[in-house]
Amino acid sequence: MTDDLSRNQTFDLPDGYQILPWHRGFGRQVGPLFEKRDETGLTRAFRVEEHHTNGMMNAHGGMLMTFADMAWGAAVEKNDDTWWVTVRLMCDFLSGAKQGSFVEGKGHVIGRQDDVFTVEGKIWADDKLLMRGTGIFKVIERRDGQEKPFTRQTEKA
């Protein structure tokens, strides 16, 4: 669980990043996750903590794939209320990330057919490319009574 955040998880973030307040479900289990929005789009991130590691104290491949799903799928978001599901995720593992590394990821839409999007994405730490791949994501409508797994805090003018 990620109930106890260390100081570097919450205060030692690169400029522009804020915590993604995912308070329930699977995102809570693999977090904390961070994001920034700027002129280049949406970038998601996480710091490799002990609960993310394999026996070699690198980010576990399952965590990197989970993160790729969350980072690349976000490329299809139009707003905070966009919901999507993963149809297919293909990943090439290129390198590892040690505990303490700040891992970032971003996807770009490269194709669309109705409400199904093809996304190309990358995951990196510093200048090292960790993973690349593609995903297919389907945008779905929210059902009445369902809540988003997180709510972004917006700045007030």
From TrEMBL:
Q: Which Pfam families match?
A: 4HBT
Q: Which Gene Ontology molecular function entries are recorded, alphabetically?
A: thiolester hydrolase activity
The UniProt entry, under CDD domains, shows: PaaI_thioesterase
What range(s) does the Thioesterase domain occupy?
58-128
Q: Please name the InterPro entries in this protein's record.
A: HotDog_dom_sf, Thioestr_dom
| Name of this protein | Thioesterase family protein
- What lineage does UniProt assign to this protein's organism? Bacteria, Pseudomonadati, Pseudomonadota, Alphaproteobacteria, Hyphomonadales
